[in-house]
Amino acid sequence: MIWGLLFNPYTEANAVTTTFNAYEQRVKHSPDGIGKFYIKREIARVMGHTGAGWLERPTRELEEQPSKVVSGLDLKPTNVVADIGAGTGYFSFLMAPLVSQGKVLAVDIQPEMLDIIDFFKQEKNISNVEPILATLSNPNLPFESVDLALMVDAYHEFENPKEVMEGIVRGLKPGGRVVLVEYRGENPFIMIKPLHKMTQKQVKKEMQAVGLTWRETKNFLPQQHLMIFEKRLYPTENQTTTPWQPQPEKQTQRRGLPIGNLTSQFLAYQYLGWYYGRDFIAAIPNYPAKLII
Predict the structure, then answer these.
(1) Tens digit of each residue's pLDDT (9 = 90 or more) over 95-128
(2) Which of 11-15, 109-113, 254-258, 269-273 is the most confident on average?
(3) Interatomic CA distance for residues 198 and 49, integer angstroms
(4) 27: left (phi > 0), else alpha (psi -120 to 50), else beta?
(5) CATH number of 2-8+47-234+263-291
(6) How far apart (Å, rounded) are the C-alpha atoms in residues 37 and 29?
(7) Residue 156: Cβ within 10 Å count
């Protein structure tokens, strides 16, 4: 049953709608995606803030080895790092001690996630993590202020990847780096749904489309690629990014989140139910039927 849920085939539509020559909208698509395609890749559904417990699960270090990710970034004490799609700030707080004279910009589109980051800032007594509320098309980074932008299992869910990446490129200093950590799409035996994995080839295409240059891929993680790209020191004639003009954007109002109600096990099970299907959590012994969503 789980195998079928993880590897659910989908049918491409005959009818295709193209938006701004960058995206295709297809009527028939994977149930795990939003029907929007970028450079022939369907964009995956986003994980909501109810999955916060899953991001903070105790087994994450064993399963994904995030400490190795941070060690592989070669951070300097004065660096400014952007954690794009920061979620609960799991990686932000791992990086913060390594940039003691700099800071981490914890960027997310969900106000509830930023509330959790504020809570952990106080609990961990860490002052150099700065939450930033992004929009679906703009990470809201200060111009040429960032040394490194990190995205861990997040990029494949960006609804407007081209626009977000253009915003990240604007926010990078010349020579700044972009690091993507994604489950290996080349390996069919990694037990993650296809839309939540990416191949190196696909990532390189999408980063090249916004003017970034691939530098290296590190494969020391159990199931994920760590891919490093760089912003050119000087613009070139062939650069594909569109010159940026300031656009007024409506900011989402942040609202308080009752942190005391975050029960890690409940949130983790709800996320697994969203990820693998309702039948997954329904099969958990003693799990209350009324909580299955």
Answers:
(1) 999 999 999 999 999 999 999 999 999 999 999 9
(2) 109-113
(3) 23
(4) alpha
(5) 3.40.50.150
(6) 10
(7) 24
